[in-house]
Design brief:
10 helices, four-stranded antiparallel β-sheet, six-stranded mixed β-sheet, 276 residues, single chain, alpha+beta
């Protein structure tokens, strides 16, 4: 028996919109039996499909498909009975969703952005533009950009004429202020040069920290804090750690849904714990 979400998904797929089921909490399923509860080692976040050997990528945005054989097939059929919503991959069809999470964000968009198709959400609105771009969370208070390599909930067709993605939206991920607080670290007493940490060592450490955060499947808050603590412990006292390094870690944390405020607090708490 077809559920309302399955019917909606098939209708969208027929119109060329790649879809996937979401469970409660707006979270994607591991979309095949071998990947239930992420046992295959895949990454159910918005950015990266898993390394599993399923017939096709089966996690988050990478699972989105227009193939009715997949949507109604044995792997997905049980999921629609549990699904709480339908999601789609905006970037996969050349769209960008400006997700406005509260009334103040909607008011800002009405003052700032060109009118386009709008869809009501629980707390705000989705503004949908023609054109794809990189996705980013918290580009300003209550505003996320959902386009490539993310999913968005399907909440209906909306109203209004869809317009071309404006430069004002593209600029949000370029010109947004860095949420990173200035990193003040002590320089070694023997001079400014760091003798025990090469640039390659630092780069490798930052890259590993980014990966640790983006691969977190649960306990994201705790993972971010522990990672910040480890980076500051290893690199925060020698004078080599810069705001640019910290910004990379903040960006990784925000890709997992952390807010700029959470990132700044975790960074500050880690520095305090280390007596910095």
């Amino acid at each position: 028996m077809n559920t309302p979400h399955l019917v909606a998904a098939l209708d969208l797929a027929d119109r060329g919109v790649p879809v996937l089921p979401l469970r409660a909490g707006k979270v994607p399923f591991g979309n095949c039996p071998a990947c239930r509860d992420n046992v295959c080692g895949g990454r159910p976040n918005m950015k990266t499909p898993g390394p599993c050997t399923c017939p096709r990528p089966c996690h988050a945005w990478a699972a989105a498909t227009i193939d009715p054989a997949v949507i109604t097939g044995p792997a997905w059929a049980p999921l629609w009975k549990q699904a709480a919503a339908v999601a789609y991959h905006p970037g996969g069809i050349g769209l960008t969703v400006v997700d406005l999470d509260h009334a103040a964000a909607v008011a800002w968009a009405r003052r700032t952005l060109p009118a386009t198709r709008t869809v009501p959400t629980t707390r705000g609105e989705h503004w949908i533009y023609r054109g794809a771009m990189p996705s980013a969370n918290a580009v300003r208070d209550g505003v996320d950009i959902k386009s490539t390599m993310v999913y968005a909930r399907w909440l209906g067709p909306g109203t209004g004429t869809m317009t071309v993605l404006p430069d004002a939206v593209r600029a949000l991920i370029v010109a947004k202020p860095s949420p990173v607080r200035p990193v003040t670290v002590a320089v070694p007493s023997g001079g400014g040069e760091c003798h025990h940490r090469t640039p390659a060592y630092l780069e490798r450490g930052i890259a590993m920290a980014e990966e640790r955060i983006t691969e977190a499947a649960s306990a994201v808050h705790a993972t971010v804090y522990r990672t910040f603590l480890a980076v500051l412990s290893a690199h925060g006292r020698c004078g080599c750690l810069t705001d640019a390094h910290a910004a990379r870690l903040f960006a990784a944390a925000q890709s997992k849904g952390e807010t700029a405020r959470h990132c700044a607090d975790a960074w500050s708490n880690a520095r305090t714990a280390l007596g910095m």
